[in-house]
Amino acid sequence: xxxxxxxxxxxxxxxxxxxxxxxxxxxxxxxxxxxxxxxxxxxxxxxxxxxxxxxxxxxxxxxxxxxxxxxxxxxxxxxxxxxxxxxxxxxxxxxxxxxxxxxxxxxxxxxxxxxxxxxxxxxxxxxxxxxxxxxxxxxxxxxxxxxxxxxxxxxxxxxxxxxxxxxxxxxxxxxxxxxxxxxxxxxxxxxxxxxxxxxxxxxxxxxxxxxxxxxxxxxxxxxx
Length: 224
Fold this sequence. Notes:
This protein is mostly beta strands. It has two domains: 8-162, Sandwich (Immunoglobulin-like); 175-216, no CATH class. 8% of the residues lie in helices and 37% in strands. The protein has two helices and eleven strands, in the order E-E-E-E-E-E-E-E-E-E-E-H-H. It has helices at residues 175-183, 209-216; strands spanning 16-18, 21-27, 38-40, 44-51, 58-64, 71-74, 89-97, 102-110, 121-130, 134-143, 151-162. A hairpin with a 2-residue loop joins strand 1 (16-18) and strand 2.
């Protein structure tokens, strides 16, 4: 069964804030809150950074180490909302951080450093894609605004990626996918890497009732 999102520091919510800056996780439309942690490979989400203050702020959304192989962050033309200020920027971060001994990939976020146009509201939006099966943690960091400009990890957004139920790649789990599962019903000898076109969801070698139950958990859900 799908699990509610769990974030470090034992907060169980889609929106988490430390101080005045917080994140929200939504579906690809940027409006509908994500309700569950377990998401299908191929699912596109959005991570929105909000604030209730009007001041210069800089931080980052980063995926570290091996987790970079399971999820991907991407910016967009409108990644900076107007409330982040006139000179707000989003900058690719792809480097080795000695202090955590890990390679990181993601985006540095900057509101207007002079405070021009900065308002309490949504500041940034970054796309998130579930690219492969497994756990993926996205670190939400805040940078010191004065030397030595150290990064402080505020918390992780924790995701679990599971096998897709969108067998026909229509971006929606529907009757087309059910028909594919039915075509393999009681099929034996499912093997890696195809697993009977992905319908052997529990990779037991047979398409059976367990797979039907796993499939039904995501009925009518979208990958994008």
